[in-house]
Amino acid sequence: MAIVLGNLLLFGRTLPHFFLSDDFAQIERATRFSLSGLFDIRIGLYRPVPLTVYRLMFKAFGFSPVPFNVLNLLIQIGNSVLVMWLGFRLTRSIAKGFLCGAIFTLHFMHVEPVIWVACLNHLLTAGFLLGALILFDYGGKGRRIWSLALFALALLSQEAAVVLPLFLLLWLWASSKPVRLRETVPYFVISLAYLVLRIPSLMVVKGTGAYAMRLGMNVAKNVAFIISSMFFRLNFRELLATWNAHGKGSSAALEVLSSHPLAAILVVVSLACFGIMFWRGGRAVKFGAAWVLCSMLAVIFLVGTGERVTYLPSVGFAMMSGVIILRLKKAPAILAASAVCIYLFTVGFVDSSRWIRASEISGKITGQLAGYVTQNPGVRKLYVQGLPDNYKGAYVFRGGTGAAARLISGKKDLQVINIDEEHMEVGEPGAIYLRYVEGRLEQVRRPVHGP
């Protein structure tokens, strides 16, 4: 009950908030393709389970964000319970299991993946993997079949699920189970088959943009980002902007260290704390630390990063920190556990405010877009200038403007063209020219120039 209450306190006020950026694009993609098209394995980012959920939700509830937000919160609650149960199974301690679940529930890095509807794939993947691991632990032929089925669903939700066999090996070691290595063989076979089928498509997607792959300092940057985000809420967007502006290599790393000394110190402190916990902790703590490291393997080579990629690693952090805190004597342990939970909740609650504000901006602009389309039924193009990309790092539109306009207007052929600095002459037939000024979209009846 406390796990449910913690999630409601942290995320309950965000349930009415409107869609943001990639939410529009994901829902549009899910509704425009046939079900067979959603399961086309040649698709670069092959994630048919969340796309199917979007499709069913949109058919049932239309363009209402509340059911989508409720679904994300319910999955987060379920995952919190699974982390609590996993902690109990590992330590055989109700108190340690509960604290593991509480830390996972309240962690501030969950604000983005829980509030952002487009992060459904991260929530589903974690839930399916946790369920598969717990069923594997209980053993039995029937449970093993269900475990393999959940693993398959995790792979159909996100590519990062391919690391589950490593989690199983870690679990067998940490829980001191009798040697059952041969029981992991089907999971390795499924992972290998998945990679063989998917690598050609993944190579196409990962050639450019956020999904491009890079080694060297890029890997160090991602490792530092994920581990430090377990301990402190840094302005990672600002740090990443500095990194990208200075070559994304050793020179970029030096610039980040010199221009953001406090952030650099906190990153070093985080890495040191993680290393000490790993070195000094028992098997349960080492299991949590190894979970963090293994879950990073699917993302540390990518150029792009984000708070959502910390969701699966945070399972391991909750395990290792929950166990190590309760190794203290009773009174210090209670004080430490209370302080950690209050810290996580406070940072997360404050951080969620920027997402709420971003959703307010998104909802207002989307409504205005719909109004212009309704008033001009013959419109086929919208030229829009100055739409906010984000609000203090919380995404507003990015590439989702066109999808938002098409979904809310019902016009599948409507084009939305964002104008930056190029010159556009007003007068194109079937087009409307809009500019975002002080929170409102205003129609422009003269040539539009960049700001």
Structure description:
The structure is a single chain. The mean pLDDT is 83. The longest helix is centred in the last third of the chain and has 46 residues, at 330-375. Helix 5 (65-91) packs antiparallel against helix 6. This protein has two domains: 2-327, no CATH class; 363-443, no CATH class. It has helices at 2-11, 22-32, 35-38, 48-61, 65-91, 94-106, 111-115, 120-138, 141-155, 164-174, 185-205, 217-231, 236-245, 250-259, 261-280, 283-296, 311-325, 330-375, 401-409, and strands spanning 381-385, 390-391, 394-395, 415-419, 431-437, 440-443. The chain is built from 19 helices and six strands.
SSE layout:
Blueprint: H1 2-11, H2 22-32, H3 35-38, H4 48-61, H5 65-91, H6 94-106, H7 111-115, H8 120-138, H9 141-155, H10 164-174, H11 185-205, H12 217-231, H13 236-245, H14 250-259, H15 261-280, H16 283-296, H17 311-325, H18 330-375, E1 381-385, E2 390-391, E3 394-395, H19 401-409, E4 415-419, E5 431-437, E6 440-443
Parallel strand pairs: 1-4, 1-5
Antiparallel strand pairs: 2-3, 5-6
Helix pairs in contact: 1-5, 1-6, 2-4, 2-19, 5-6, 5-8, 5-17, 6-17, 6-18, 8-9, 8-10, 9-11, 10-16, 12-15, 13-14, 15-16, 16-17, 18-19
